[in-house]
Amino acid sequence: MHPTSLPGEFGTGDIGPEAFRFIDQLKTAGQAYWQILPLGPTGYGDSPYQSPSAFAGNPLLISPKELVADGLLAEADIENIPNFPTDRADFTAVAKWKNEILSTAFRRFTKTSDTQLREKFARFCERHSEWLNDYALYRAIKSSQHGKAWFDWPAKFKLRDERTINIATEQLADLVEAEKFIQFLFFRQWMKLKAHCNELGIRIIGDIPIFVALDSADVWCHQHQFKLDKDGSPTVLSGVPPDYFSKTGQLWGNPIYDWDAMQRDGFHWWKSRVRATLSMVDIARIDHFRGFISAWEVPGKDKTAENGEWVNAPGQKLFEALQADLGELPLIAEDLGVITPEVTGLRDRFGLPGMRILQFAFGGDSKNHDLPHNYVQNSVAYTGTHDNDTTIGWWRSVSGDGSTRDNNAITHEHEFCLKYLKSDGSEINWDFIRAIWSSVANIAIAPLQDVLGLGNEARMNLPATANGNWSWRLRENALTDDFLERLRDLTEIYSR
Fold first, then answer.
1. Mean pLDDT of all residues in the chain?
2. In CATH, which superfamily holds the domain spanning 3-56+189-493?
């Protein structure tokens, strides 16, 4: 469950008191892992996979209550809360309100006599300067350009004319400082939450999207390391060919790395990125792992992903460089989709666990590698992921609603599923959880929606769609002691 899905009064979940309560509930339920989505600011479609930075934190996750506790806001500053919905995140409305209170917190900080807080902020800025200076300037210029994407800025800004950048840094100094302060607040709160998690013996599994958003500080500052034209427009875009989720493929729209350029400087950006992520989480899932062998490159002007081609990437050299820099790689390979022997070989060469998805297990025969009896120890088993329907939603699914299966395929899957699990389907979500909990996979993960037995209304993301995703929220007090006890019982039975 991503932190935005936590309950609370501020329109979206955050990393304040409700997050600490949730971690305590995980401990009560005997859990050892909490898996989340990418923590960066969200971009197009509110997607955490379209972030304007591979390093920054999401300001929407900053807890207003923690700011009050720190003396950066007064109680009166958060009394007039808009009438936010409680079961969905209204990201646009929350961003408008939260930007106002964060501005208030920054103004209060500029007038503070708390030298200790000022010193902590200064140390944070110094420690994160490699990415923070560029990101803060990117955000400041973007604000001065009325929110336009960097590739639509005037050429002198877009192409980073040195004199122009120096002048902008000076003229926009207050905006730059405010952006840095917002990041300071996020990281301060997040690291406090992570410490609480680790103290209770719970490890956080984070997420590293393989690609970054085109409109991001990363691409703007490192244009020579991406496949772009001289004017900054992408020559090719990322995606996947037609698959389970879409007959026309998925056009993600991210720019593709110029791997030759990245290799020339020893993959410096990648080393910095992975190091930064692993300072915030204990383990990281590498999204779209197969893209390190070859990526589906779609012509930059195309509107669907159908006409792409697979283009090789230097995955082995990259991971050798990461291993030399970081030592052991606490990573999970998201090895779903079109998997070749080369992808499997890269995963196994570095000892990375792959993923097994129980919802994918019943479309074939007994040799399907997503069936629990075919699992290996070095894997992470899931009932489903954020890209799947909930298990109850999957069980009730019909043709054309979120997948490319027809009704015959769905009927076959259901019949095989009931036979395999020796189930009557009345508690299919718990049958799924039991199946992966009892498997040999070293780690087993269930989305909270499956623990609660929620249907399609609680789905987090429908791939190949741009709207209505990522907004599910846990209702207050929905995660009751009964659910926690049942989860703990299964965890103890299977020695997890």
1. 95
2. Glycosidases (3.20.20.80)
Catalytic entry in 134, 334, 413, 431:
334
E-strand ranges in 268-350 read: 283-286, 294-299, 309-312, 331-333
pLDDT digits over 442-474, tens only?
Answer: 999 999 999 999 999 999 999 878 888 999 999
Helices assigned H by DSSP within 29-71: 64-69
Classify residue 45 by its DSSP letter.
G
Residue 496, amino acid: R
130 is catalytic: no
| Helical spans, DSSP H, in 303-351 | 315-326, 341-349
Measure the CA–CA gap between 378 and 354, rounded to whole angstroms. 7
Asked if 32 and 445 count as a contact pair (C-beta separation under 8 A), the reply is no
β-strand 443-445 against 203-208: which pairing, if any? unpaired
Radius of gyration of the chain (CA): 23
Burial of 282 (0-12, 13-18, 19+ CB in 10 A): middle
DSSP structural state of residue 109: H
CA torsion, points 271, 275, 276, 280, in degrees to nearest 10? 160
Could you tell me which residues are beta bridge partners of residue 145?
none
Helix 129-144 vs helix 115-127: angle between axes, to the nearest 10 degrees? 100
The pLDDT of residue 402 is 59
> Domain boundaries in the chain?
3-56+189-493
Tokens standing for residue 420: 């395999």
Does the annotation count 328 as an active-site position?
A: no
Closest CA to 307 of 249, 348, 354: 249
Instruction: Classify residue 66 by burial, with Cβ atoms within 10 Å: 0-12, 13-18, 19+.
Output: buried
**44: pLDDT confidence band, cut at 50, 70 and 90?**
confident
The number of residues making up the chain comes to 496
274, 208, 210: which is closest to 239 by C-alpha? 210
38 in Cβ contact with 49 (< 8 Å): yes
Name the token pair of 345: 């070989």
Which one of the listed residues 18, 287, 297, 450 is annotated catalytic?
287
Taking a C-beta distance cutoff of 8 angstroms, is the pair 88, 5 a contact?
no
Tokens 């780690």 belong to residue? 443
> CB burial class (10 A; 0-12, 13-18, 19+) of residue 75?
exposed
Residue 191 has pLDDT above 70, yes or no: yes
Respond yes or no: is residue 287 known to be catalytic: yes
